[in-house]
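> example.struct
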């Protein structure tokens, strides 16, 4: 007899939902504003203040809608400094009604938002980006000391270099480092790839990286003052892209994954070194961090949404209590 496997769980582990829980999830998806909120949270996290600005509603009204979504387990919260940020809940399939939640989230993600709403989203992203650029303009010369408060480059740098040596690339011709900082890892890339591009939105940090490379007489590195969406980089065909401790400085981290599918060559590999989620709020002030790290599941979800396949995951524990995740994703087509 043919066995039918349920969408979530197994025949020996049934999921049962109460009528109240089912009604709560259905209610949460039955409002235009709440659908807009879910659509916005598909790719990124936003604070209550940012959502108020984007949607043009009163904070008291928005707070009510967010409470309804939270009770239905469609959104979750995380604290970033003094602000509470909302994001979509990741449906794991281990909870009752996850199939319904996943369907609602998928439909909300495909909803077309008004052009003025999308324009206000861009303004929020720009405000975040401006804050990050301002920090690095003022702190470029002491970047290494501040960054080492969280993660010593040489701790994850050796592990990352070994991972690249062990990776089977379709080609080893072109490499890209996004946000190279002071340029410490560019030498490793220069030794392993014929052509290397260093990309940064901070002119000050890019100049610092360039000076280090010149002192090491590295001849195969191009420096681009741009972001990952720029035509200056999307026209490239990159075999290996590396992002070291950058995503927590980026206004919209999920967009980096979408951009990667544009500049990565077929079978190209994206390698990310990033902080796991933590609660050290002083990092906002001391290191210019926009985000307090990320859950591994968040990076996985963003990569999958961008059409990237996960290859490997390594976790490194730091003596200061931080945990680093080294991840690899691949563009298959």
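> example.seq
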């Amino acid at each position: 007899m043919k066995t039918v496997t349920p969408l979530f769980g197994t025949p020996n582990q049934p999921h049962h939902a109460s009528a109240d829980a089912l009604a709560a999830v259905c209610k949460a998806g039955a409002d235009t504003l709440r659908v807009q909120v879910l659509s916005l949270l598909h790719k990124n996290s936003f604070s209550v203040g940012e959502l108020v600005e984007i949607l043009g509603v009163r904070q008291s009204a928005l707070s009510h809608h967010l409470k309804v979504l939270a009770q239905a387990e469609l959104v979750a919260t995380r604290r970033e400094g003094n602000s509470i940020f909302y994001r979509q809940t990741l449906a794991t399939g281990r909870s009752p009604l996850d199939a319904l939640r996943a369907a609602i989230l998928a439909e909300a993600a495909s909803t077309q938002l008004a052009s003025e709403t999308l324009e206000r989203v861009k303004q929020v992203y720009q405000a975040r980006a401006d804050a990050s650029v301002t920090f690095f303009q003022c702190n470029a010369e002491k970047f290494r000391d501040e960054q080492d408060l969280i993660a010593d480059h040489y701790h994850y740098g050796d592990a990352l270099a070994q991972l690249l040596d062990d990776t089977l690339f379709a080609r080893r011709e072109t490499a890209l480092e996004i946000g190279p900082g002071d340029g410490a890892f560019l030498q490793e890339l220069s030794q392993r790839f014929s052509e290397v591009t260093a990309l940064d939105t901070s002119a000050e940090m890019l100049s610092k990286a360039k000076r280090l490379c010149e002192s090491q007489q590295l001849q195969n590195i191009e420096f681009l003052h741009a972001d990952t969406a720029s035509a200056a980089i999307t026209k490239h065909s990159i075999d290996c892209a590396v992002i070291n401790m950058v995503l927590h400085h980026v206004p919209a981290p999920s967009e980096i994954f979408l951009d990667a599918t544009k500049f990565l060559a077929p079978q190209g590999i994206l390698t990310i070194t990033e902080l796991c989620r933590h609660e050290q709020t002083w990092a906002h002030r001391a290191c210019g961090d926009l985000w307090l790290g990320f859950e591994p599941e968040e990076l996985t979800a963003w990569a999958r949404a961008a059409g990237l396949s996960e290859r490997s995951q390594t976790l490194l524990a730091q003596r200061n209590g931080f945990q680093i995740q080294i991840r690899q994703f691949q563009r298959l087509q």
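> remarks
Residues 1-14 have pLDDT under 50 and may be disordered.
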